[in-house]
């Protein structure tokens, strides 16, 4: 239920008139989680939407311009609905609800615009926090081969691993295969102590981290032992056919064109493949063409292939990460146009 009253700040009620909207929520048990500890969630919404929120019992008074009040209502309603479904709400979910409400729709090649998107893994329920994440999660449900590119912190690898874990738990695939190029393979890798697994594990650690976040540790350990979950350098994929598997190639910008062709042709019956990478972070030798850029160019119009592009506005780590990415993007754009040194 929402009621509205006009409350002008000026005596003539013209220039700076503000709306006061009363939002009502039926289940008082959900309100502590909706408002956050010490009303932390309301404070986040106030800061981001430039609106004043005052909780009173099972009501919230929203004061600000009409758009700000409407936005606050949308955010609080979506968070309340999430709590009503038995899902958690924390600062991350508040940030995500605000992003989903305020961000412009992001185009993506071959993807359908999403409705509310949730992903249930054995350890947690995951929701899209940006429109692009929503498109990506919808594509994961529909497409056999997805290219997801963009800066660090946008969730492109984490969401793919989470979807793979959900697919494995639901029996839609028989195994998960996670791979990365070991760019330092060769002479420098040889100086690292230990056997081959010890040498390549540092390059694959982000994939382990994502797995342990969405699956119980015992299931990850058991899966690694029985082959249900496999984490391996890209070079180890040669000569294989990967059937009934969810396959992820991470940091794909550091694959060569030949390696990418090799990996893509491992695709077997009943499998799904996700290729992730950041085209701005290529560590290949100077002059070597990235297999990610090559494949995205060649396969752009191929039926069944989807390409999702994340930007700095999709960064869901610390807010500073988004500002860092944006600063680097701006500097690169200036260099490209000759406006910067």
**What is the arithmetic mean of pLDDT?**
83
Overall CATH class of the largest domain: Alpha Beta
Number of DSSP helical runs:
12
Sum up the overall morphology in one term: globular
SSE succession: EEHHEEHHEEHEHEHHHEEHEHEH
Radius of gyration, whole Å: 23 Å
CATH topology of the largest domain: Rossmann fold
Description:
The chain has 341 residues and is α/β, with parallel strands linked by helices. It has two domains: 2-101, K Homology domain, type 1 (Ribosomal Protein S8, Chain: A, domain 1, 2-Layer Sandwich), CATH 3.30.1370.10; 107-337, Rossmann fold (3-Layer(aba) Sandwich), CATH 3.40.50. It is 41% helix and 19% strand. A six-stranded parallel β-sheet has the order 9-8-10-11-7-12. Strand 3 (52-56) and strand 4 (59-64) form a beta hairpin. Helix 2 packs parallel to helix 4, helix 5 (131-142) runs parallel beside helix 6 and helix 6 (156-169) packs across helix 8. The model is unreliable at 11-15 and 106-113 (pLDDT under 50).
Record the SSE blueprint.
Blueprint lengths: L1 E7 L8 E8 L6 H5 L4 H10 L2 E5 L2 E6 L1 H19 L6 H12 L15 E3 L4 E3 L3 H12 L2 E5 L6 H14 L5 E6 L6 H4 L5 H19 L2 H10 L2 E5 L11 E5 L7 H8 L7 E6 L13 H8 L6 E5 L9 H19 L4
Parallel strand pairs: 7-11, 7-12, 8-9, 8-10, 10-11
Antiparallel strand pairs: 1-2, 2-4, 3-4, 5-6
Helix pairs in contact: 2-4, 3-4, 5-6, 6-8, 10-11
């Amino acid at each position: 239920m929402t009621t509205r009253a006009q409350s002008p700040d000026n005596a003539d009620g013209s220039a700076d008139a503000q709306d006061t909207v009363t939002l009502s929520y039926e289940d008082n048990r959900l309100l502590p989680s909706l408002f956050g500890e010490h009303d932390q969630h309301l404070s986040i919404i106030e800061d981001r939407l430039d609106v004043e929120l005052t909780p009173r019992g099972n009501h919230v008074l929203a004061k600000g311009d009409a758009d700000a009040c409407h936005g606050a209502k949308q955010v609080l309603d979506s968070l309340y609905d999430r709590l009503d479904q038995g899902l958690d709400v924390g600062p991350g979910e508040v940030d995500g609800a605000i992003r989903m409400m305020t961000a412009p729709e992001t185009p993506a090649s071959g993807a359908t615009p999403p409705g509310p998107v949730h992903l249930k893994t054995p350890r947690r329920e995951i929701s899209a926090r940006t429109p692009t994440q929503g498109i990506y999660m919808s594509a994961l449900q529909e497409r056999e081969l997805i290219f997801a590119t963009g800066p660090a912190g946008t969730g492109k690898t984490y969401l793919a691993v989470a979807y793979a874990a959900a697919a494995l738990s639901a029996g839609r695939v028989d195994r998960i295969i996670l791979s990365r190029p070991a760019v330092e393979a060769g002479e420098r890798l040889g100086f690292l102590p230990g056997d081959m697994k010890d040498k390549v594990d540092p390059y694959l650690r982000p994939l382990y981290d994502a797995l342990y976040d969405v699956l119980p540790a015992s299931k990850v350990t058991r899966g690694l032992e029985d082959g249900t979950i496999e984490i391996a350098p890209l070079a180890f994929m040669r000569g294989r056919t990967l059937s009934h598997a969810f396959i992820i190639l991470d940091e794909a910008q550091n694959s060569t064109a030949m390696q990418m062709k090799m990996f893509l042709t491992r695709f077997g019956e009943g499998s799904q493949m996700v290729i992730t990478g950041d085209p701005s972070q290529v560590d290949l030798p100077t002059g070597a063409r990235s297999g990610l850029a090559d494949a995205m160019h060649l396969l752009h119009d191929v039926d069944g292939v989807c390409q999702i592009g994340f930007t700095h506005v999709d960064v869901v780590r610390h807010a500073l990460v988004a500002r860092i990415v944006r600063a680097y993007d701006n500097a690169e754009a200036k260099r490209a146009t000759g406006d910067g040194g």
